[in-house]
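Quick one: structure for this chain?
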Amino acid sequence: MAKQLQAIRGMNDILPEQSPVWSWLEDNVRHILAQYGYREMRVPIVEFTNLFARGIGENTDVVEKEMYTFEDRGGDSLTLRPEATACCVRAGIQNGLFHNQQQRLWTSGPMFRYERPQKGRYRQFHQVSVETFGMDGPDIDAELILMTWNLWKRLGLDEHVTLELNTLADLESRKNYREALIAYLEQHKDALDEDSKRRMYVNPLRVLDSKDKGTQSILGEAPKLHDYMDDDSREHFARLCAILDDAGVKYVVNQRLVRGLDYYNRTVFEWITSALGSQGTVCGGGRYDGLVEQLGGKPTKACGFAMGMERLILLLETCNLVPEDVNKTVDAALVTFGDVGTYGMVFAEKLRQASPNLRLQVSCGGGSVKSQMKRADKSGADIALVIGEDEKQNGTVTVKFLRDDKPQITCTLEELVARGEISG
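Got it. Here's what it folds into:
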């Protein structure tokens, strides 16, 4: 017997019972982005591998361990995108979006990373990525944070997430800090976890993000990046904090927050939650002022963030914040019996045209009235529209209320639309 076909581990189907929640969340995200004047851009799922090696950083976990990379028939090394920022920068350079222009952009879709699947972390996952270009100063950093804050309020998550904030200063500051941090870590090398030992010389700032308890205890006495910060970065961060203070956004300054990708500078931030265990980050981002030039474009200031849809949905469900009516996809169900010919289908089309927002499901395939009514009830419809030979002859429909204790009524299509109960 042939082995049953299955999805690849960590790449999940989103079933019809689950997709309404996705659509509802995506609609809310689109609404907030439109409020702030952001425009959608759609980028390919597959890019040349060197885009990510140059952009994300060759010494990051993403590039070293997690990318889905393959050689195509032409001999080119291609990679399924592990994140979208590098893709947006490539698209902007290629299509001339950055020269003397300001851009507020967003994109969404599946990303791919080979890692151990677990709840809230998958090999194919979905992100909304928001990217801004051509704007210096902390005001655009603040706008991105305020935008996410307003999304949390709209979703009811504002009491369930915390903003962590840090600055990585400029390149020269990080270089000086890097030397001091390596010198400190060398004194405690034997006590570091193996991953931190490996990172210590190639990417020492990532040691700050270690989850190993022993390493974290050593870092308590480590040098602080803020002590090596240049004056411009210090002022930038202070002004950002002042904007957030004036707007009433609470935050925690976490000097160990570095993010996992090499392209960040100055502002970095994460929205975290304690409701999902170890999968606590639901949104993160910051500035990447050097990335456009690094990928071959002209120097362009940039800032953005990404949020994981699976993790957001998990958080919303954990906190019971998904509205009860989200999964409702049908308002009315049409049931026919007897010799009514095509009358039911034609009636349904006329009703859809008269009431464009109505979600009407026709009971196709026949069956007894009892079985059709069971299907109507299972669909979640509020009403069943019943058409038999009498209704066909009289040009009417019988309305049965499935959720409310109301007597059934018989009326014409025009009377049905006028009643307002069928508006959708």
